[in-house]
Amino acid sequence: MTITAVELREIRLPLVHFFETSFGRTTERRILLVRVTDKHGAEGWGECTAGEGPFYCEEWTETAWTTIKTFLAPMVVGKEIVSAADTWERMRAVRGNRMAKAAIETACWDLEARALGRPLWKHIGGVRGEISSGVSLGVQNTPEELIEKIEKELAAGYQRIKIKIKPEWDLQIIAQVRDKFPDIRLMADANSAYTLADVALFKEMDQYNLMMIEQPLAHDDIFDHAELQKQIVTSICLDESIHSSADARHAIQLDATRIINLKLGRVGGHAQAKKVERVCRENNIAVWGGGMLESGIGRAHNIAMATLEGFTLPGDVSASARYWQEDIIDPPVTVSTSGTITAPGGPGIGFEANLARIDKLTVRKEMIS
Ligand code: OSB
Ligand code: MG
Q1: Residue 62 is part of which domain span?
Q2: Which of 16, 233, 253, 344 has the highest local Cβ count within 10 Å?
Q3: Atom 14 (ligand 1): residue with closest C-alpha?
Q4: Under 8 Å CB-to-CB from 113, ≥6 apart: which residues?
C-alpha cells in the first residue's frame, strides 16, 4: 500500500465518571485520532493512547501530536509499504514514542484489513470470536462508592474486578472488598505507587487471594519486581515496564512477572503486540488486554488484539457506555450478560467511525500529505 495522507485530529471527550489512579484523576480525555488514506482512497483509523500529561509514561497528547506531525507521518506518507506489518520498520529511526507510532501503525492495519474486506482480528491472526471482559475501577471518593460500583459491574456480567490502589487506599480497601465479595476474581493495580520498602504491605495482601498485583513498583523497573516476587505469593503482573518483546523476555527470565497486561500503545501497535504475545505464550505466561480509557477507535483495536491466542484472562476492555455518553463509533462496544465482547464480523476494526460526531468534537486537525 502507499499511504497518501495522514490526518491528525484532537478530540475532547468528557468521561461519564472521573477515573483516578495513583498518578492522578482524569475527567476529560484529549484524544488524538489518526486517519490514513491510500492511493486508492481506502481509509484506516487509529487512536493514540497517550494521556493528558506525562504521568502514566513519558508520552502525552502534545508530544504525540508533534512527533507524529514532524517525524512519523513523513516517514510513511508517499512511501510504498509492503504490508501493515512493515509500518513499524518505516518508523524505526524514531526511538521510543511508541504510543505515537501505534496510532499510525494501527491505522495502517485497519486500512489494510478493510481493503482486503477482512475483519482486522482475523487479519492479525486472532483465534477467538469473543473476548472476556473485566473492569478497572479507579480510586473513588469513599469505599462505599467503590463497593456500589463493584456490585453494579458484577450484576452486568463482568468476569473480573480490578481496583486501583495507592497509599491510603490499599490494604483496608482490599480487605473491605474481599469481605463483601469473598469469591470474585479480584486484582489490584498500583500504577507504580510503591517501592521495595513496602514489601510488608504486599505480604499482607497475600491473604486476600488476589489474581495478581499489577505494577506495584517503579514504571521503569524490572529487577526490583523480581525481588518483590521472591517475597510474596500473589503473582505480579507488569504493565508500565513492558515496552517490547525483549522487555517481556527479560521480565519473564527474572521471574519479575507471571502475567502480562498488554497494551497496544505501550508496545507500539499490532505487530509489536503480536511479538510480546508470542514470547508470553512460549513461556506459559498468561496475557490480558489492558485499556487506556480509549474512545471506540482504540477500543475496537484492543478487541482485535485480545483475540490472539495468548489472551487467556479477562481484560480491561469494557463497554463504551462505561466511559462515554456517546461513543464516536457505530455501533458502540457492548458487553454480554456473561461478560464477553463479540469480535465484529465487518472489515477492518469492524465499527464505523462516526465522522459527524468526530467533527463536532474536533478541536484541531492537520493533514500531512
Ligand atoms: O494502568 O491499566 C492502567 C487507565 C489509564 C492509564 C493506565 C491504566 C488505566 C486503566 C483503565 O486501568 C483501563 C480502562 O478501563 O481503559
Ligand atoms: Mg495498569
Answers
A1: 3-117+353-368
A2: 344
A3: 291
A4: 44, 84, 119, 120, 122, 123, 347, 348, 349
Residue 89 CB neighbours (<10 A): 11
Residue 82: pLDDT band (50, 70, 90) is confident
Give 272-322 as a 3 state SS string: HHHHHHHHHHHCCCEEEECCCCCCHHHHHHHHHHCCCCCECCCECCCCHHH
Q: For ligand 1, atom 13, name the residue with the nearest CA.
A: 291
Q: Is 106 in the pocket of ligand 1 (CB under 6 A)?
A: no
* For residues 297-317, average pLDDT: 98
Does residue 55 lie within any of the structural domains? yes
pLDDT recorded at residue 56: 98
Give pTM, 2 decimals: 0.98
For the CA of 318, the nearest ligand: 1
Pocket test residue of 56, 58, 136 for ligand 1, highest count of atoms within 8 A of CB: 136
What is the tally of structural domains in the chain?
2
Which ligand is closest in space to the CA of residue 138? 1
Please pick, among 164, 166, 274, 275, the residue that the annotation labels catalytic.
Answer: 164
Question: Which residues have their alpha-adjacent CB atom under 5 A from ion ligand 2?
Answer: 189, 214, 239
CATH code for the domain in which residue 163 is found: 3.20.20.120
259 and 325 in a single domain? The answer is yes
Are residue 127 and residue 110 in the same domain, yes or no?
no
* 164 classed as catalytic: yes
Task: Note whether 308 and 277 are within 8 A (CB).
Answer: yes
Assigned domain for 301 exists: yes
Give yes or no: residues 182 and 283 share one domain. Answer: yes
Find the 84 Cα to ligand 1 centroid distance in Å: 27
Residues 136 and 78 occupy one common structural domain: no
Q: CATH number, domain at 66?
A: 3.30.390.10
Q: What is the residue-averaged pLDDT of the chain?
A: 98
Beta bridge partners of 133: 315
Let me know if residue 347 belongs to a domain.
Answer: no
